[in-house]
Design brief:
This protein has 379 residues and is mainly alpha-helical. The protein is 47% helix and 7% strand. It folds into three domains: 112 residues, no CATH class; 84 residues, no CATH class; 118 residues, no CATH class. The strands form three sheets. A two-stranded antiparallel sheet has the order 1-2.
Length: 379
């Protein structure tokens, strides 16, 4: 009895193995017989899939074919993702699932692999939303957009410095090309009617960090900065300018001088008060940055000569506020928001003078009289 029992399991195992082989062969035959039908439902498989991979992936996708054509998640979810060099389809899909754009990341991965689209995901920018189906997301992941270039424009730069920065950022323009398009009188802006002819948008290129498409043109970048100016210089600021008796163009001109003079934000309203007090009394502004602007590019490659010489102070230029009263003909740089706020809301003081402190802090000493001003000189 014990001997017979030893040999009994052999028959069932053989039968089970045979049945499994039959099932596999039946499924394989069924798949290959129905290949055209499968392709019409889930698409053409990748050529590098072996038969078993193709069979398995096609089976999963056919069972879930309805899910391939449904919204991947909440249609209100939208995002821009950056794929970096070296990221795999698994990395990207995992991120999409974590961010809530795809509920069934495994199904998306299987679809990408079946179609051979997993190898088509390249480094770049992708715009996706939850209303897209898995098929649509897979297709969109084959259409990378070049990564946008981030360019930061600091406060107080003049147009030439901005142009050099754009060219250095490898955007497909030359500095001279950008400078050329700034010599315009743009229409539709709050300051348009106040600009002299011929115009220049010096002062109205709002300092900020911008994202530009690598193929952006000089005029597109210019208008991005002008549009930002219109947003930042809102009705409150414009009312403040008006309350000080200034047009927007005049206000930006004064703000550009303050931008080049001030280092510490809290001093900007004080410096502004000095200039307003001097304008009210008919005293020349005596602002070094206006002469620096007129002197332009220096042999050492800088745009702002320092220190100035007595000979520089005699420069015959309408921008020389040591020689000519009132504001210069236009802005000398592109001021930031704090300098423009200092013009709209200056401090109320009796100061007529200021000079840099001797401690290297960037702060200034303020004085009401010239005698006090002289006493504030460095030893």
């Amino acid at each position: 009895m014990s001997k017979r029992n030893k040999h009994r399991p052999i028959v069932p195992l053989v039968l089970l193995g045979g049945i499994a082989c039959c099932i596999v062969l039946w499924l394989a035959a069924g798949f290959y017989i129905g290949v055209p039908k499968a392709i019409s439902r889930i698409g053409t498989p990748a050529e590098d899939l072996d038969p078993l991979q193709r069979l398995f992936l096609a089976g999963v996708l056919l069972v879930n074919q309805d899910a391939l054509d449904q919204s991947s998640s909440d249609p209100n979810v939208a995002l821009e993702i950056q794929v970096i060099e070296g990221e795999t389809a698994i990395d990207v899909v995992g991120r999409l699932q974590m961010l809530g754009l795809v509920r069934n990341g495994d199904l998306l991965l299987k679809y990408l692999r079946y179609r051979g689209m997993d190898r088509g995901i390249k480094a770049g920018t992708y715009h996706l939303h939850g209303g897209m189906t898995i098929r649509e997301i897979a297709a969109q992941l084959q259409k990378s957009e070049p990564e946008e270039i981030r360019v930061t424009m600091p406060e107080g730069w003049r147009i030439e410095q901005i142009a050099d920065s754009l060219a250095a950022a490898m955007i497909q323009i030359e500095a001279e090309e950008f400078i050329a398009v700034t010599r315009i009188n743009p229409t539709g802006y709050s300051f348009t009617d106040e600009m002299p002819q011929p115009g220049s948008v010096e002062g109205f290129l709002f300092p900020d960090t911008y994202l530009f498409h690598p193929d952006a043109t000089a005029i597109e970048m210019l208008y991005a900065m002008l549009d930002n100016f219109e947003v930042q210089v809102d009705a409150e600021l414009q009312e403040g300018f008006s309350n000080q008796g200034l047009t927007i163009y005049q206000a930006v001109t004064l703000a550009s001088i303050i931008e080049r003079e001030a280092i510490v934000d809290e001093e900007r309203p004080l410096i502004s008060s000095v200039f307003f007090n001097r304008l009210a009394k008919g005293i020349n502004l005596d602002a070094d940055p206006t002469i620096q602007y007129a002197l332009g590019l220096q042999p050492d490659g800088s745009w702002w000569k320092a220190p100035l010489t007595f000979e520089d102070l005699e420069l015959d230029s309408p921008y020389n506020t040591y020689k000519y009263p009132g504001l210069p003909p236009g802005p000398i740089a592109n001021p930031g928001l704090e300098s423009m706020r200092a013009v709209a809301f200056p401090a109320k003081t009796s100061f007529l003078y200021f000079r840099a402190m001797c401690d290297g802090s960037g702060r200034h000493s303020f004085a009401e009289t010239f005698e006090e001003h002289l006493q504030n000189a460095c030893p």
